[in-house]
Amino acid sequence: MNAIIFDLDGVICFTDHYHFLAWKQIADSIGVYFDEQVNDRLRGVSRMDSLDIILEKSKIEYSLEEKRILAEEKNKRYVQLLNHISTADLSDEVKDVLQELCKRGYKLAIGSSSKNTKYILKQIGLEHYFDAVSDGTMIKKSKPDPEVFLKAAEMLQERPESCLVVEDALAGVEAAWRGGFFSAGMGEAATHKHVTFPIKRLSDLLIIMKE
Ligand code: GL1
Ligand code: MG
């Protein structure tokens, strides 16, 4: 393998809770039940697809325009929460693993469904760190479709079979598998039947990826 493509939310940084808080405020405002279990299904899924999952529990049908307004409102709240993150939110483990993999000669990329990817990378001080950043602003279909990872591989000028995708979401491992990538899955993603390497923590990558 020549390259590693990292998911962002839940792998490089812990923005998951902010997504949860922002979606929870929206769900509460329209009286729709929302909890951590529903939130787990949103991992790796685009903003509009996430909203559709939340609205499964709604008794009311929302028009496309109403949904656009709700999604925009969620994003406004999420971005407000993101204002509080900084380089202090980049863990030592993530920093050390990225540095070591870079030293070992691997190309490093981001493959995230989030349209806020560039902003988050800037906030945590990784704006110029990756060889490629493929995100929600560049794709038509979010995970479990492999588009975001295929785009990253293309930017890196690598074939999928030369890349490892690192994920915390089932939809992310599914996308990696569909695209012909190897995958390392942590948390729930470690349980996917097609995950190549189930891992406990990010530093396990240093065992998998040779020096
Ligand atoms: C979107 C969704 C989130 C989450 C991320 C992927 O982020 O809204 O719920 O699934 O994609 O990690 P964003 O709103 O930042 O584009
Ligand atoms: Mg994730």
TrEMBL record:
Keyword Hydrolase part of the UniProt annotation: no
Entry's cofactor comment: Binds 2 magnesium ions per subunit.
UniProt-listed InterPro entries: B-phosphoglucomutase_hydrolase, Beta-PGM, Beta-PGM-like, HAD-like_sf, HAD-SF_hydro_IA, HAD_sf, PGP-like_dom2
EC number: 5.4.2.6
Classification via NCBIfam families: bPGM, HAD-SF-IA-v3, PGMB-YQAB-SF
Active site positions, chain numbering: D7 (nucleophile), D9 (proton donor/acceptor)
Site (described: Important for catalytic activity and assists the phosphoryl transfer reaction to Asp8 by balancing charge and orienting the reacting groups): S112, K143
Organism: Hungatella hathewayi WAL-18680
The family this protein is said to belong to: Belongs to the HAD-like hydrolase superfamily. CbbY/CbbZ/Gph/YieH family.
GO-annotated molecular function: beta-phosphoglucomutase activity; magnesium ion binding
Cofactor requirement: Mg(2+)
Pfam families per UniProt: Hydrolase
Binding positions (substrate): 7-9, 23, 42-47, 50, 74, 112-116, 143
Gene3D superfamilies referenced in this protein's UniProt entry, alphabetically: HAD superfamily/HAD-like (3.40.50.1000), Putative phosphatase, domain 2 (1.10.150.240)
Protein name (record): Beta-phosphoglucomutase
UniProt: Mg(2+) binding residues: D7, D9, E167, D168
One Gene Ontology biological process: carbohydrate metabolic process
CDD domains: HAD_BPGM
Catalytic activity: beta-D-glucose 1-phosphate = beta-D-glucose 6-phosphate
Keywords associated with the record: Carbohydrate metabolism, Isomerase, Magnesium, Metal-binding, Phosphoprotein
